[in-house]
Design goal:
There is one protein chain. The chain is mainly alpha-helical. The chain has helices at 2-23, 41-97, 100-113, 121-132, 136-148, 153-166, 170-183, 188-200, 204-217, 222-239, 245-258, 263-275, 279-292, 296-303, 311-324, 329-341, 345-358, 362-375, 379-391, 439-445; strands spanning 27-32, 35-40, 397-400, 403-405, 422-424, 459-460, 491-492. Helix 11 (245-258) runs antiparallel to helix 12 (263-275) and helix 16 runs antiparallel to helix 17 (345-358).
Length: 538
């Protein structure tokens, strides 16, 4: 753009000059070697301009001829360099695609066209070709040579780190990451690997220092950095809660300033206050977090803050949580559980059913079974609610990388990832109940509560009456023993009178558990029978 403007200004200046001369005509006389030369001023200016242009043209031609060898040499060098970079680009693409033959071919061509000192990427292409061909020792030696060169140190350390992890040498890989993070804390992979290693070793202060360096270098965004720092402070506070409760409380409160909904930090700070029997300050820590993120562990600690409280006191605190977060499943569940402990079964059942309507899950149905067991003892209804619990979705838990933990952990035990645990339903289950049944339908389908049975008069069983058959048939009399006790002294309920005329008595076939009148096992009057072995059906 500058050149165009300069050229336009020169053309305008020349045009203005010739126009000025044309408006002011005159004669120019030159005496040279006795000859008088006269011409107009415009012609003289044109001759001078032509002479200047001729001189410039001649100078350009002479300079082009004089510098032509160097120009030719630069041209062929640039052409060779372009071919080399083209081969390098093709080789890197082939190495990334896993084409070992083409990668090796492009490596040889690049080395013939470019110098390794001129382009360090040749070392990377050569090492990648060795990796594809399975020459891991050769590749490692080339990465080590790159790590010794200040220009390619980071690239070489990265290659050594990846190879060490691939071979299972995690200590060596961590050492390479430490070296890279020390010299270049702005490298994300080195800082992340170093941070995870320090967290696994419990070096929380070093991890926090490295995280601050990453934040200052702009590797991690501010929000993410504050969240990770809060997690590190919570882990540090959890380790020293037993030995230094005050220091643990300060770290936990600092973590809550960075992440206001971090439940583990709130629990640690509240436990520290409760060790000093300061229930009021513990509540001021737990209640804001409960409003933001209702969590069952917060409810449990809040309700059972003091071991000496009565069940009514715990119920009042649970209702306080419900007032802070109404129409929430955790609030309703906490009140239902506290009401069960306080023997207020109607309230417990109402809150449990309301929680189940919001989100039916395993713990709610188990709680309803406990309520039924404590209030009525009806085993049929208890088994029904337990069956519903088996079909209901599982309760949320601390989950990270398909690992379910009973408590929160700062680092995943599988991958070492920081802040990996989340409060959610575990994996590997069906979403929702197996049966498509709402809670109202489930309550309606529950067995009715058993009513008390009416009282019956039970008398001892009378001796079995042996009736002799008669030639003439007679009307039978019904005598039905009702078994209501064990075999010894079995009481029966007599449903028909036994007084009748013997002539009108006809022997009724004995039920399943007796013998027929003509059974050989029945002893007839005046007839002696040999004892026989009695067989039991069961």
């Amino acid at each position: 753009m500058t050149r165009i403007l300069t050229f336009a200004l020169i053309v305008l200046a020349l045009g203005f000059g010739f126009s000025w001369l044309a408006d002011r005509p005159g004669v120019l006389s030159i005496v040279w070697q006795g000859q008088l030369i006269e011409m107009s001023l415009m012609v003289a200016a044109s001759i001078i301009a032509a002479l200047v242009a001729a001189v410039m043209l001649v100078w350009w031609i002479v300079n082009a001829v004089w510098t032509s060898p160097n120009a030719a040499r630069r041209y062929f060098r640039a052409r060779k360099r372009d071919r080399g970079y083209q081969a390098l680009s093709t080789g890197l693409i082939a190495a990334g695609a896993g084409n070992a033959i083409l990668a090796r071919k492009m490596t040889a061509r690049t080395q013939g066209l470019l110098s390794a000192d001129q382009e360090p990427l040749i070392h990377l292409l050569d090492a990648q070709a060795d990796l594809i061909e399975g020459k891991y020792d050769e590749a490692r030696r080339k990465f080590e040579a790159m790590a010794r060169d200040p220009e390619t140190r980071e690239l070489g350390l990265r290659g050594l780190y990846i190879e060490a992890r691939r071979q299972g040498a995690y200590e060596a890989a961590q050492q390479y990451a430490e070296d890279a993070a020390e010299k270049a804390p702005y490298l994300p992979w080195a800082a992340q690997a170093t941070l995870e290693n320090r967290c696994r070793n419990g070096q929380w202060d070093d991890a926090i220092r490295l995280l601050d360096q990453q934040k200052a270098a702009g590797v991690i965004e501010r929000g993410e950095a504050e969240r990770l720092k809060a997690v590190l402070l919570t882990a540090k506070a959890g380790e020293k809660l037993e030995s230094d409760p005050v220091g643990a409380r300060e770290d936990a409160k600092h973590a809550l300033k960075l992440a206001k909904s971090l439940v583990p930090a709130a629990l640690i700070a509240a436990k520290s206050y409760l060790r000093e029997d300061n229930l009021r300050k513990a509540a001021t820590v737990l209640e804001p977090v409960w409003k933001t993120d209702p969590h069952p562990q917060i409810a449990e600690l809040y309700v059972r803050a003091r071991s000496g409280d009565t069940a009514i006191d715990r119920l009042k605190r649970a209702e306080r949580l419900e007032s802070l977060k109404p129409n929430n499943i955790e609030s309703l569940f906490a009140v239902a559980q506290a009401a069960l402990d306080a023997k207020e079964f109607a309230k417990a059942r109402a809150k449990a059913e309301a929680a189940a309507r919001i989100e039916p899950r395993e713990s709610i149905f188990l709680l309803m079974a406990d309520i039924e067991e404590a209030e009525t003892g009806d085993q049929g209804r208890v088994r029904y609610w337990m069956a519903q619990a088996l079909r209901a979705p599982r309760d949320p838990a601390w989950v990270a990388d398909n690992i379910v933990s009973e408590k929160w952990l700062p680092v995943s035990p599988v991958t070492g990832r920081l802040d990996a645990f989340e409060w959610k339903a575990p994996f590997g289950q069906l979403e929702g109940p197996v049966e498509d049944m709402t809670i109202d339908n489930a309550i309606a389908a529950a067995p009715a509560r058993a009513e008390p049975a009416p009282a019956t008069i039970v008398v001892p069983a009378a001796p079995e009456a042996r009736v002799e058959p008669k030639p003439a048939p007679a009307e039978p009399i019904e005598v039905k023993p009702v078994v209501s006790a064990p075999k010894e002294n079995r009481p029966v309920t007599i449903e028909a009178p036994v007084e009748a005329d013997a002539a009108d008595v006809k022997a009724e076939p004995v039920p399943f558990f007796g013998g027929a009148p003509d059974d050989p096992g029945v002893k007839k009057p005046g007839v002696e029978t040999e004892p026989k072995t009695r067989l039991k059906l069961f």
